[in-house]
Amino acid sequence: MKMNNKQKVTQLAIFAGATAFAALAPQAQSQSSDALIDKLVDKGILTANEAKDLRDEADKNFNTAFQAKTGMPDWVTGYKISGDVRGRFEQFAADNSALDDRTRLRYRVRFGVAVNMLDNVEAGLRLGSGDVKAASGSGNQVATGNPLSNNSTMQDNGSKKMVYIDTAYGKWTPINAAGWQLSTTVGKMDNPFLFTPMVFDPDLTPEGAALQGGYIINDIHSLAFNSGAFVLDEIGSSTHDPFLYGGQLVWNAKWNAKWSSSAGIGALAIVSPEQLTSPTGTGNVPYVNQGNTRLASGLYAGAPAYNFTPVIADASVTYTLDSFPLYNGAFPVKLGGEAMNNPGAPSNNNGYWVGVTFGKSGTKKTWDLSYRYEYLEADAWYDQMVDDDNGAYYVNAAPYGDSKAGYYGGTNVKGHFVKFTYSLTDSLSFSTTCFLNDLINQNLTGKPAGSVVSEPKNSALHFFADLMWKF
């Protein structure tokens, strides 16, 4: 089909605009030129085939200009810059007068870039803020950031704060066709498992290798598989380094426009948990949370007393309403739960939560409200992996690690969680979160095996309000 002069002029204008955008703002170029082309198709000025040719030509021109300006090799096909900035007001309070009511102001900043290459290859790096947590006692490591947090506390006369490597990974997706997908990731990465914060803190970025796959069975059913092997510590004087292994299978179903559901089963295992001693003397790892029963003395004093081989199951069902007051768009209501059992411990080895979420935030004028009740016994799972915000008050300092009396997240905790988030714009959201918890067993609480240490009046409230900008 031949184009008339008007169409040729239109295409030349789009090419000129696309070239300008490529020089100034690569991401804006792609979005804006596509929008212009779509509008021209809607107006009948361009056919669908002409629009496709125009996009292909614009992409080619953009890639050529990008490579020329940046010196990138021709196998680099694109990149994505992302990140967020979050400000937080945080408060702690407890029934026990020994805990002073405490408030603090914090912030978190993350900045990352992912580079896409030919043959479905990706490499990424993300930097994140954080406070110094602890120095290892092994003698060959320096002070590290908190593995469960990117928060920096506003303090010390406005002193300069630390920036750490949050993720650094390479990813290859050799299969992505006919409903199948298979990818492997190596390095420091976002957690590949879909377990909730009862199992893994949301800020944990494990180090090792992951294998993930998926299969679309039909229009209703699909399966996803996640597995990984991660280093917990490298012990220079031992061949028995502690590792974390795991696998997870998830079934998703979208029954119709209203109903959807999900169910998953998974298992985790920690090898050589006796090496996970706290950072005092010859300790090996940072000590953030509490809860596990730990060895009182000997070569591995401070290490967990039992093995960790938990089996975890989860399920949810979602019903979507056409609309809801003060909400923009279709309104989902989700009921869900998760349960865990650790056969590696003889008792106090179960955990579960049940909850409901109304709505889903993320775009302008949307919001969500969540409630959850959680019950996580002391030795259900390794306490240093779980959500560090979900905790209670400890009257007594642990006899190991660098801890002292105070509020700690971890295991051996039961209580309530409430969170509300409102998206003011697509990029700006406001949220409030409240944990109201008690210790399950006040005579265990991670103290040495065989000892009885009382933790009376341990109820505590942890509240924070966040304002977050994302890009």
User: What is the helix fraction of residues, given as a range?
Assistant: 10-25%
| Coarse morphology | globular
Number of helices: 3
Q: Please give the alpha-carbon distance between the first and last residues.
A: 41 Å
**What's the helix-strand series?**
HHHEEEEEEEEEEEEEEEEEEEEE
Please state the average pLDDT score: 87
DSSP strand (E) fraction? 35-45%
- Stretches where pLDDT is under 50 for at least 5 consecutive residues are 12-30, 135-142
Rg calculated over all Cα atoms? 26 Å
Tell me the CATH architecture of the largest domain.
Beta Barrel
Strand order of the largest sheet: 1-2-3-7-8-9-10-11-12-13-14-15-16-19-20-21
CATH class of the largest domain: Mainly Beta
Category from helices, strands and their pairing: mainly beta
Overall number of structural domains: 2
| CATH domain topology of the largest domain | Porin
Oligomer: single chain
What does this structure look like?
- About 6% of the residues have low confidence.
- It is globular, with a radius of gyration of 26 Å.
- The chain folds into two domains: 66 residues, no CATH class; 389 residues, Carbohydrate-selective porin OprB (Porin), CATH 2.40.160.
- By secondary structure, it is mainly β.
- The chain is built from three helices and 21 strands.
- A 16-stranded antiparallel β-barrel has the order 1-2-3-7-8-9-10-11-12-13-14-15-16-19-20-21.
- Strand 19 and strand 20 form a beta hairpin.
